Amino acid sequence: MSTVAFITARGLFGRRRALLLLPLPILLVGLALLCRAYDVSPDQWGRAVIVGLGLTVVLPVVALIVGTGVLGSEVDDGTIVHILTKPLPRRDIILAKYAVAATVTTVVSAVPLFLTGLLAGSAKLGAALAVASLVGALAYSALFLLFSLLSRRPVLVGLVYILVWEGLLGNFVSGTKVLAVGQYVVTITDKIAPTTMIESSVGLTTALVMSAVFIVLGTIAAINRLGSFSLAGETS
Amino acid sequence: MSEAGVIHDIGYQRYRGPRLGRLALQQALYVQGLRAAFGLGRSAKAKIFPWLVAGIMLLVAVILAAIRSQTGQVIFTYMQFADQMSLLIIFFVAIVAPQLVSRDLRSNTLPLYFSRPLRAADYVLAKYAAMTTSMWLLLGVPQFIMFLGAAFTTKDGFRGVWNELGDLVPGLGYSLLWALMFAGIGLLVASFTGKQAFAAGGIVAVFMMTTPIFGVFMSLPSTTANSLAGLTSPMFLIAGVGQWLGGGADAEWDLGRFGPIYGIEAFCLIVSCVLLLLARYRKVASL
């Protein structure tokens, strides 16, 4: 199991590919520093940076790239066969890959968000953002891992989820907010460290329970799906 | 064909008919790219995503036209339509740009293409033209539906239709600007990787992460920074150009005296994307 995790991590970071993940967090912290340097009140820029960039772009996009990268690229290349033919339970394969995806996403998004929160307000806000992005990373990773087993084009399915479901429908139809990971992240941040910058629209219990549902159901569905996984030929 | 180019002559009959030149190759690539953008001539799976986007946009246009014809209320103008649909446009770019260029990199078809009289520039321009056309159709057809809805229910007779046409034409030009800009950036990002998944993620990351910068610059205390805020993001850059050329009737933010800068940057961005694409395809062997 640890070997699977090691191979997955190397697949993500090997050959300088990890550098692709750097611009987003750097931009986030850089903007926060810029605003601090101009002495702008955090009430004015906090929403744009923390919610607009951090929670609705950096976290989901990093989770999407990493979450579909751990399994989707192996399905795409056909190298998944090498892992599937080893005498490992499918559950262990999924759990190892899920752990890598969630860890990488958490590190890449929680650290810059913590720094941004620190610059925007207090260490408490930073910690709240870090905790919320941990929950968000777990939920998003489970979801995108599942997508990469359900579809041959997981990134596009994930983009439909992020752009259309959370982005477009979330603005016009409030009912979808109960089923959007992004809203849970915002809510958890808001409940730990209430500020004027962040407004939550679902309850804390809903957020926590639904995050757990996403994590558990996503992982179980992914294990099930990999259990009966068949390698199709090149399509479309 | 000169006989000097023949390596082995094993006696087959030679082709003596007319040979189509670069122009025909370019045209073929263009048509193929345009069809591939909408998944035409490919399996049903390849049609899902482009037609999902196109379907939503057509649906919105029909709804807008219906509301306009029933109540006379204008919810989005032709220009606002493109701005409001920006997320879907980004998604469309993320679908189509990897289809057009990453697939060729992945399946190593480029050496085959370039063994013909086709040049790298022809390839790039054909792909760029195909992508631009597909995006322009994506925006223009819904705008035309909105126009039809307005034109058939106008109460001022022919003059009403003429006025409406006067609104539609700048709207279509604005859509073309969107198409040129987003096609250039999208193709450029996609041309760096053969993996469609990474290309799609990269494109979305580029567009999504530039948008909030606009909000940050807007919140800075300096009015110069506020006026220049739109320069940081392709989407707001286009909106700024639209505002500068359109007189700024529905200004989201004040351009100040920097309108021309928006025009210059938009032009430079489009040109540099195409130039970078051309530079990118100068050496294809070293992928």
TrEMBL record, chain A:
Coiled coil: none
Membrane-crossing residue ranges in chain numbering: 47-72, 93-115, 127-147, 159-182, 202-223
Keywords recorded for this protein, A-Z: Membrane, Transmembrane, Transmembrane helix
A Pfam family that the UniProt record links to this protein: ABC2_membrane_4
Annotated protein name in UniProt: ABC transporter permease
Species this chain originates from: Actinoplanes sandaracinus
Phylogenetic classification of the source organism: Bacteria, Bacillati, Actinomycetota, Actinomycetes, Micromonosporales
From TrEMBL, chain B:
Keywords from the UniProt entry: Membrane, Transmembrane, Transmembrane helix
Transmembrane segments: 48-67, 125-152, 172-190, 197-218, 261-279
Naturally occurring in which organism (per UniProt): Actinoplanes sandaracinus
Pfam families, A to Z: ABC2_membrane_2
Organism lineage: Bacteria, Bacillati, Actinomycetota, Actinomycetes, Micromonosporales
UniProt-recorded name of the protein: ABC transporter permease
